[in-house]
């Protein structure tokens, strides 16, 4: 027996209950499978989310399903289709086929839809059996948003039929408009520059929403592939969902992009946001996690108002597909939808073959257990490959002859990912799944030109990874938990030490906090001190080069934008080398602090590699309640 929602059970003859479901940030996760680890998991997959969707449809008299973007890229299946199989006219993309199987009413475009280029995007979405809308990206920009020639339809009005509390049917017109962060113009400049323009989300909404209402929409739903951020509008906001919700005429906001959940305590202190009511500026809102982890749900009790409808009451929730238990195990809450699995079965098998293919060998293991406390083999290989590639690209240019450095960070280094979230590739064959494990994101290679002063600032920003340590103190916690490992750039091609007795020059989010602080000491290139006026090329990725993470020396210093992803470059490097030697070159260390010890946490499997860590004075200090291994380092 199905338990009806109170809105459905209590709707009066002139009232109707409408349930609006959201998926967001699917990132090609159709199957409940971790292709990097090459094993099934219970925490991801549209095949699981689809079971919740099916249940909601069974509970509800009236229901709609919307997708909030970032569905086309984000795991090896997406890369396989884009780089290996390709998309010809008329081809079906497996994630679109799966979405058609689930049955969406409409969707929008996230920023990652642009990662593979506009041609791939348009061919992939051509097979969607539901309208895709996007209001703030135009192929031709007019004097104002309503004069734009948009890449997709800016909005759609869906004509649907609602059944009211007495069982009578009535028409309703639901307007759906979509938005993506305007930062796509920086993040995917190589694909978009000269081809499209992106407008501010709020400015665009102010122009289009009145038109949707004028055309007779009873409800307007904003598909905001944009996070929940500041309440005050600023031009070009990346996370604009709060001011967007404040626009007259918008009745509900589907959010995403941030890979978080709303309603949840995460947003308890945000201006304009009521996590208890699940509203933003009084409008119902939801964010359904990522990779299919949750299904967002907004319930509306509507009442006939003349010939139209008005919202009487609302509720919001995000329903998970799995739960984490106190012992860190995971319990699946739903089964797979067999039809969704079947829709992508061939692409799944082809992806498995793709990720298991050997591309070369490594003479020693590649692991990231000590990547935050010592020069590291998993980061070293990425750095070597980037340096190798940019050296080729600089030949014959005006920059040939400048020293080429390389910046790389550990992506899998525990933290919120847990005690198993580390790279660990044994010696022997290296497959594509291993390369994806070394480099999680499909970033593209870029090069920037910096001064010695900017180089030092870049490293100072990176050194915010560490708490300040008082000389002579015992067992202070080394790592700053608010600092993400992907912002801990190690720069190869120079040598340096990090003085932990100094304060961090920057906050975790990149604001200047202590301008005179100097954690980076003894910075040298080819054995000579680096001066402020020296010039260097740094090989990095599009995210960092375009200003991601707020590092000195980035944002406006790009001199080369590669057509290749960092992963592709790593694969090519391994193929050319045949057998790679991943030994770290120990180009950075902590400055000595006699009589001082610190504690840091890593994965338990790190104990198998302690003997490799000759640069560190390590002592095993047991395990944490969360399952991490704790080590003591004598500085």
Write a short abstract of this structure.
Belongs to the 5'-nucleotidase family. The protein is built from 16 helices and 39 strands.
What does the model show?
By secondary structure, this protein is of the alpha/beta class. It folds into 2 domains: 12-351, Purple Acid Phosphatase, chain A, domain 2 (4-Layer Sandwich), CATH 3.60.21.10; 357-468 and 482-584, 5'-nucleotidase,  domain 2, CATH 3.90.780.10. Helices cover 23% and strands 29% of the residues. It starts with 5 loop residues before the first helix and ends with a strand. The mean pLDDT is 94.
List the helices and strands and how they pair.
Elements: H1 6-10, E1 15-23, E2 33-34, E3 39-40, H2 46-59, E4 62-67, H3 76-85, H4 94-102, E5 106-108, H5 118-125, E6 132-133, E7 137-140, E8 149-150, E9 155-163, E10 169-179, H6 184-187, H7 189-192, E11 197-198, H8 201-214, E12 219-224, H9 241-245, E13 252-255, E14 261-262, E15 273-274, E16 279-280, E17 283-288, E18 294-305, E19 308-320, E20 322-324, E21 330-332, H10 338-343, H11 345-356, E22 358-362, E23 366-367, H12 377-394, E24 404-408, E25 424-425, E26 428-431, H13 432-438, E27 444-451, H14 452-462, E28 476-477, E29 490-492, E30 495-498, E31 520-525, E32 528-529, E33 535-541, H15 542-545, E34 558-565, H16 566-577, E35 579-580, E36 588-590, E37 597-602, E38 618-623, E39 629-634
Parallel strand pairs: 1-4, 4-5, 5-6, 10-12, 12-13, 13-17, 22-35, 24-33, 28-37, 30-36
Antiparallel strand pairs: 1-18, 2-3, 7-8, 7-11, 9-10, 14-17, 15-16, 16-17, 18-19, 20-21, 22-26, 23-25, 24-29, 27-33, 27-34, 30-31, 31-32, 37-39, 38-39
Helix pairs in contact: 3-11, 12-16
